Amino acid sequence: MNYRKEADPVSHVSILPFSTRSTVKPSDCKAFVLEVLKYRGDEDIHRQIEEWEVPKFPVNGHDLVSQGCPKGKMMSVIMKKLREMWKQSDFEMGHDELVASIPKVLDETDPSELTAAPKLTRKEKKMQAGLKKK
After folding, report:
1. In angstroms, how far apart are the furthest CA atoms of the chain?
2. Which residue, 91, 112, 117, 132, has most beta carbons within 10 Å?
3. In 3D, which of 77, 78, 89 has the Cα closest to residue 116?
4. How far apart are CA 30 and CA 112, in angstroms?
5. Considering the entire predicted model, what is its pTM?
6. Per-residue pLDDT tens for 82-134?
7. Rounded to an integer, what distance in angstroms lies between the CA atom of residue 109 and that of residue 44?
């Protein structure tokens, strides 16, 4: 099932649940979009998105470990790359295809991606957020 078709108004929204911070649940993202559409009076699009089922990412940590991924920071890096591949495929890649790609993704992962970013103070985070908006 193709979740993003260009003529479909849902196509602009379908990527949203997977483009936000990882702490935001896709269902919450969908609920937010529905509320905005209700406020705007876009009944047709509201109905389409309400009927649209948010795709569930088919890979979990057990799949990574079964393919030889070391536990820890490497798992989150690999999971992020797999999620990006899944999004690029319009959510078409299934469990087996994603799991089969884990060894290749592991081989292509640069060790520098595993270094933790320095912790920022609240002030630094606010400054960084302000720069991104401009």
Report:
1. 50
2. 91
3. 77
4. 35
5. 0.65
6. 999 998 998 899 999 999 999 999 999 887 776 655 677 787 777 766 665 54
7. 43
